[in-house]
């Protein structure tokens, strides 16, 4: 029965992540920028020591994502959709890691309930289907949790250091890790092992001392809330907790979620003599405090904490009768179900541009329209739309697609195309491609 339930949940989770992915995949400018860099690595045969750039042009993450993605992009012959599908497959393996890890640490019932919550979690579905490089952070949370709670300090530090290759948001886990070592294994050698393990995966960053110097100057200002916030919309702790379970706010269910989360925290606190539960409590407490220093950070800053709310709620639900737990999870599914297939999400039947994203088939049609209109002439490219304050107007996705279709844009060419996303093109402009919420304008 246990294996049947697990298999049913896993298949359901895969369906919600893979169904119509090729039709609704949004090839973002950020992913386009990553693929351009990985393409250059393949063509130049040069292994980089820095990884994807942050929103600050002077700061980059570690290079591991580029190193791992290079053979994948080469394997799929530079096809961005196939690359995204393989990334989605790897991200979906987090479900297996979650079930295995939580079963080992807290028992199969907590693992099964939390897997059911993950299966229909809006935050987890969105994270998987966006296939961004930092979406790999949660899968590394589980070995960190297991290794640190079992006193394998060097390897725990190694895992945490690997996380910094995908984003710097796991910094919020460092105080919790050090606090845990202090409370349970108070020896200087243990701290030393952990720190050495932490440093090793980010050694390539030390080749750029100028970048690290700027980071050392900038970080205190950011922690004090004095540095300017980024351009992405902010996400509160309350939004983070609710998004783990709900697509849209629902008062009664929100109250229930907060009640179950609080109950889970109380239960974990009462059993804090168990190392893995003490560590979970510290991760959550220090993590929320660390997030608070950022005021309202983008949603992906919460990724290091993603596994915790579902485990806390599942831990609370294990104290209820099985029929009550089943009814609560079923009710949650029924509340979320209409939103899963609404025009604002991924599974609707028609091609509609939603939010600030343009689906891959439309992006491909747009790119081919530019190539057809250019008639083998050189052209340059720009974009007006969400996030166009970033490098190259956040148009690296179209730049990559045009290169992939053998017609890359050439800077400063007389013939110029401007892509307008989520807004109308100027009146009297020469529109060569249009779609609701999207247009391409030719100019000379």
Automatic annotation (TrEMBL):
The UniProt record lists the keyword Transmembrane helix? yes
Q: Which residues cross the membrane?
A: 80-100, 137-158, 164-183, 195-219, 251-269, 276-293, 324-341
Source superkingdom: Bacteria
Entry keyword set: Membrane, Transmembrane, Transmembrane helix
The molecule here is called Glycosyltransferase RgtA/B/C/D-like domain-containing protein
The species this protein was found in: Candidatus Amesbacteria bacterium RIFCSPHIGHO2_01_FULL_48_32b
